[in-house]
Amino acid sequence: MPLSDDQNSDSDSSRLSESTVSSSDTEYSSQSFNSDSSSKPSSPASASPPKVITFDELMAATRNLSNWTLAHEIAVNANFCIKHEDYPQNSFAGTVKQIVHKAFWDHLESELNEDPPEYKHAIKLFEEIKEILLSFLTPGANRIHNQICEVLDTDLIRQQAEHNAVDIPGLANYVINTMGKLCAPIRDNDIKQLKATDNIVELLRQIFRVLDLMKVDMANYTIKSLRPYLWHNLVDYERTKFQEILEETPSALNLTTEWIKESIEDELSSISDESSSRPGADSSSKPIISPTRVLNNGYLKLLQWDYCKTIPETLITDEVRLQELREKLNQLKVIACVSLITNNMVGAAIVDVPDFTDQLKRISLPLLEGMNKNFDLKEALNAIGVQICSIVNKSLSERGLPTLSEEMQSNLMGQIAHVVEKNSPVCSLIDKRIQLFMRSLLALPSFQKCMPTMPGGLSVIQTEIEFLGSQYASIVNFNKKVYGPFYANILRKLLFPEAAVEKTEAETSSN
Hints:
Blueprint: H1 10-13, H2 55-76, H3 92-112, H4 120-135, H5 142-151, H6 154-162, H7 168-182, H8 188-195, H9 200-248, H10 254-277, H11 291-301, H12 319-350, H13 356-367, H14 377-398, H15 406-417, H16 425-442, H17 462-495, H18 497-510
């Protein structure tokens, strides 16, 4: 059963498993906020004065942030991989690279064409090739390791060069065969092309090109192998890394604190409005605020977040995913608005239109692609209105019925275009119902697979919004697991300041 804005009580919120620190709102009582929730001695929301950090400390924090972000992306994004990208040929960097590389390979060719040949640079290339091949080997591959070191022994090759006895084509052939044994199946065609290359300088150049591709393949294989381990240990890893960042930069929770503070203020305002609307309500009593509801309200605000503003620090790793969710949710909101308007105005005309809902999605989604602050929504809505009128008129004509009048078409298109306005009642209604669905979803235990009841007016986008909702809930639940102790300390200080002061004084006196 979905929760309305007025029904999300502490007992309902207590159903949340894996919430901020514990599994129920009951554990969020004043008593629980009198004790540190962090497992570290250094409290994430400590009241210690700010300290001046050194450049080395700042760089250490930056490295931690980089590792933390990368580990999170590898674990949660199944499509994450490293791509081999080169500079565009017409770019300045691409042109410089092309000129420098051509000069090098031309110089190598002139050396090998001398009489007797000069092998100095060629030997350096084989030395580099040997190191790359060895980097592909697993720790137990002793036989092939020894073979590579023996065949590509640069000291031996230099001695052979002194007597003009170096077999460059033979060495290149060995390298190609070894690459064929070590490469991924996707590189088999590249290996065949290498074997078909006769010019030794071009062959060496292409060997390095394929080796670069093999490096990327190896990195992606490592990422794929590492993903299950990272996922299994990600909560502890991210929490530890963030704690290290916090110790290096004590201000690393400032934005998160402001985000939670705003959510508390919104909750107080909501309670105040609710109390004033009830006759006989005791306005002097102190309002009871649910920490879980405060946090869930904060998460809901992320679906309407202005991403020109910096996101709370604890959500940086999911910023891109949250932006994509917001954009897709906005698209679905527009489609639901258009569907509701169309049904209200010309419902009788579309009742027999086969798959009208699917047609509406097919024409709307491409036109709404890339919704952001620079997106011309009014133009897209006008185009959608024209397409809807066309679909309805075509269906009416096929059934031998009169088409929509010019006035009806103009009114329908005008109502659809009005969705762009901030005061649009239809848009406001759909937005509230989407928020209600998402709020209900966050109130469900994470292990519960069924979806909450879909509010009226959203059936047209039910499949899509349930899919987005599951992604959103997954991000939120994981975020709570990782940063629950940090949120708990912030909430304790903001909701129970007296208890926080007493605890600080007790710690001071004991020291």
